[in-house]
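Case study 2.
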Amino acid sequence: MPLAFATHARYYRNGAPVIVTATRRTPPESVSPRAKVSNKMNHFQAEFEAKAADPDAFALMLDTDGNIAESSGSDFLFISNGVLRIPQRRTHLTGVSLLTAVELAEKLGLETDEGAFTQFDLYQAEEAMLTASTYCLLPVVKVNGLAVGDGTPGPIVGRLLQAWSELVGVDIVDQAFKRA
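Prediction:
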């Protein structure tokens, strides 16, 4: 399946919306999120739910305690008070892209904090992002229709994308625009 460069380019430029869904992430007490299994029905349900609210949106799932877990197909991070906030890893599959984003953030001198974060914490964020192998890192500019920060891709996400491009030896954003 070809990469969706045109979609990625649009999100790099304008940012992506996310919708917090009523569908929850399977609790780690039931199935370890480290087990990459084919039963992801709740992920599909969350995606359908998000798309019904906003066709461009990614689904953001909470754990059964109401804390941020992950997107239906990617990891989710946000910046609050200049700190990179990472949802507790016990609730989601920690992807290589999330680990790369955290490593790059630390190299850029950003403090990181892993914990249980609520929607309220997210609504106070200055920036947010999704990480996945297909697009590396995408800026998130809306949560449930509300602006994250000033509603545009932020400077920290930009610095992380630049650092990622340097790491892999290709301008990720430029590549998306050229192949769109």
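The first strand starts at residue 16 and ends at 20.
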